[in-house]
Amino acid sequence: MRFNPMEIERRSMEIIESELAVPLDEEVKPIVKRVVHATADFSFAENLRFAPGAVGTMREMLVAGATIVTDTNMALSGINRAAAKRLNATLRCDMADASVAAEAKARGVTRASVCVERALEEQGNVLFACGNAPTALIRMLELLDGRTPENLAVIGVPVGFVNVVEAKQMLWESGLTCITALGRRGGSSVAAAIVNALMYGIEGVRANGM
Amino acid sequence: MRFNPMEIERRSMEIIESELAVPLDEEVKPIVKRVVHATADFSFAENLRFAPGAVGTMREMLVAGATIVTDTNMALSGINRAAAKRLNATLRCDMADASVAAEAKARGVTRASVCVERALEEQGNVLFACGNAPTALIRMLELLDGRTPENLAVIGVPVGFVNVVEAKQMLWESGLTCITALGRRGGSSVAAAIVNALMYGIEGVRANGM
Would you say A79 and A197 are in contact if contact means Cβ atoms under 8 Å apart? Predict the structure, then answer.
């Protein structure tokens, strides 16, 4: 068995490419492949949805400087820190923040609500990556009330059985710059894989751009 | 849409129960259901494999006091900290530890090797949860060389396309107290879900034991 990490990744991507049953647009292909790499689940080749131009816009936001906000520490942990650092991106998840818990309690709202409000208050570019909590996604759409701020892009891929399909459908129809995975599947690994694939596709972030 | 987290979880588990196509042993069912809950992927009902008595043995180890070692910070982040605290379990992932990186460099071995060696040097109970790196799993089996220490249990569910199927098959045939997911699928979310399900099934760890 071979153990060189980059060689294993290269070989994995070759296998994925050879088994992909759906023809994919060149712009989205590296993102789909990285999600399949993270899950071994080819159904994402059919379920992932990209708003027109979303990949390019998200990369432009990352190049210009962005805060990547996640809904769980798990998604945050899956994001390549070296790549984020090369882009001077700020990585943030407020869910475990004590001030968020205190504010949520005082106002009688969920922590996810407070986190989403804080993300929307950011003045710079925000990439909101949601792999777990459909409630966070729904709350964000409620707060936006139809607005589609130019400094906001959403990777909305929560996983599960209640509110999840609906939340992702709402995001998909929102007009926001977004990437989603229609249906039940998704997760923190998927959210992190999408963020990583976006970063790796930017010149200079990763030697082989895979 | 309903937003009470425990209500959503209860409803999710009902949906999963109603859609499970494979009859499952009562001992393993809560673990399979929690993995499906984390992935929305029912193929785990067929792919998850439990060594005889593994669930009971792992719970006994957790009750007696155990160190839960993960191969990624992502898996570590997915483990319920409150539940682990109630069991006085130590949570550990050495992959990002500076001393591990230094030792790996000095000896010309991988960081995963050093982490696995450190896990095997533990005197107390060790639950090794591997959701990402088949190399860590393979290295552990090499170091054990057929031994099956009583203080060691392995949750081996790496995901991917190279070495992964083989590593899990090796684990499954090793005679170790183990849980694995045959085939390509797995991941940090799966590893964390299994650890959480093991903890939740212990009386007093979670009110509803779900």
Answer: no
Instruction: Mark yes or no for CB contact B187/A38 under 8 Å.
Output: yes
Q: Which residues of chain A fall below pLDDT 70?
A: 1-3, 207-210
Cα gap B104→B100, rounded to integer Å: 6
Q: Which residues of A51-73 are buried (b: 16+ CB within 10 A; e: fewer)?
A: beebbebbbebbbeebbbbbbbb
Distance to chain B for A37, nearest Cα, Å: 6
Active site residues of A: 37
| Cβ contacts of B24-30, under 8 Å, gap ≥ 24 | B27/B55, B27/B56, B28/B55, B30/B197, B30/B200, B30/B201, B30/B209, B30/B210
Q: Tell me the mean pLDDT in the region B74-102.
A: 95
Q: Of A50, A72, A187, whose CA–CA distance to B40 is shortest?
A: A187
Neighbours of A185 (CB within 10 A): 23
Mutate to test the interface with A, among B74, B139, B159, B210 (most CBs of A within 10 A): B74
Q: Which of B16, B24, B30 is nearest to B195 (CA)?
A: B30
Tokens of A69: 């906000």
Helices B188-200 and B29-39 pack at an angle, to 10 degrees, of 140
Tokens of A207: 């030697």
- CB interface of B with A, residues 8-47, below 8 Å: 8, 11-12, 15-16, 37-41
Distance CA B3, CA A55 (A): 31
Asked whether A53 and A193 are in contact (CB, 8 A), the reply is no
The separation between CA A14 and the C-alpha centre of its own chain, rounded to angstroms, equals: 24
- Report the alpha-carbon distance of residue A210 to residue B116 in Å, rounded: 28
Q: What is the ipTM of this complex?
A: 0.94
Give how far B163 is from chain A: nearest CA, Å: 6
Q: Quick one: what percent of chain A has pLDDT higher than 90?
A: 86
Tens-place pLDDT, residues B55-73? 999 999 999 999 999 999 9
Contact B159, B187 (CB under 8 A): yes
